[in-house]
Amino acid sequence: MSTGFFGDIQKIRYEGPESTNPLAFRHYNPDEIVAGKRMEDHLRFAVAYWHTFTWPGGDPFGGQTFLRPWFEDSMQAAKLKADVAFEFFNLLGAPFYCFHDADVRPEGRTFAENTRNLNEIVDYFEEKQAATGVRLLWGTANLFSNRRYMAGAATNPDPDVFAFAAATVKTCLDATKRLGGSNYVLWGGREGYETILNTDFTRELDQMGRFLNLVVEYKYKIGFEGTILIEPKPQEPTKHQYDFDVSTVYAFLQKNGLENEVKVNIEQGHAILAGHSFEHEIAMANTFGIFGSIDMNRNDYQSGWDTDQFPNNVPEMALAYYHVLSGGGFRNGGTNFDAKLRRQSLDPQDLLIGHIGGMDCCARGLKAAAKMIDDGALKTPLDARYGKWDSPEYQKMLRGEYKLDDIASWVEKNNITPEPASGRQEYLENVVNRYV
């Protein structure tokens, strides 16, 4: 049933690279086989409920620009928003969506009221999912917007806030399980500090470790079969956040005995804020064995903050999906568009056009990545660069069969005098460009 919000727009179809229709896919063909799998099954696209249906269009210097008929804090408005959301998923052909609790239910006066509101919406979502076939990629709790979380949630100096946040995650994990979610995400937007002057690192990191262990314990208690994910981000809104990047998260997981229980949801924009590239963070997660899922967006490279724009850089996407595919592809994870319109993009069709462009960009990147892997375009020169390590003597060094003095004797006996070899960076950069 149409809500009328999108007018007479019909379901978005694949029309091929020559199409000039802004409401059609040019590169994303869900049924196209890439590397032995349907494109839809590779990419596992999801729509972010918060930016797409909840964000009012504000920025640090200006308030609301979007006027949506569901912009009020009531159950009736929440259900209208759900109607529009699932109509949007169907028009776009997106197989998944993601949400925070605060995105989908009215804010109650108490924890119990919040829970009742969330459960009522989950009932509604169950009906919508059954009718449309759209699935939940992941759920999460908003532990950063309400003023109670101004000094953090798990890391708050007030234990009552810790308890309220933990109870909220419990209800959101219950909701995610009910809706068949593939993952549950924790993003510590306020888990950090504004100044060291009033911050006890030891206490806060211990609290954060206990909180995450509680989540994992409860996952097993209720039989949730999805993956628990942490989303790294270095700063903004706080001056420094403890889950700075993939490497920091891995160290935190190791310290708390959770490296085999929790994986990461990596956002392109957050990777840039941490001083990395997106592909760096994905490759690092593969190295540590904690890659889970991705939030797809981009930053404005002139602004220096998290602008959450739709992706439009095919070479960046090609390298990102190269590392996704090299690590075996998504298992429970997928590609969530944690992206929002610019505040001047007021028309309902702009919501569709932004997602269409992002999906086409990702599709082109995926196909380029699959071809690079198939051709060995990057792996062959990479293997050659490290090839000497495969020799028996050097393998003994890695296995610990040679001690430091043994190595020194071996170098002297064999007159080892290394000569530098070219890293061939410019050649490899040109190789990537040939595929995009």
From TrEMBL:
Mg(2+) 2 binds at residues 267, 270, 306, 308. This is Xylose isomerase. The active site is at residues 100, 103. PANTHER family: PTHR48408, XYLOSE ISOMERASE. It comes from Rhizobium puerariae. Homotetramer. Its EC number is 5.3.1.5. Its main location: cytoplasm.
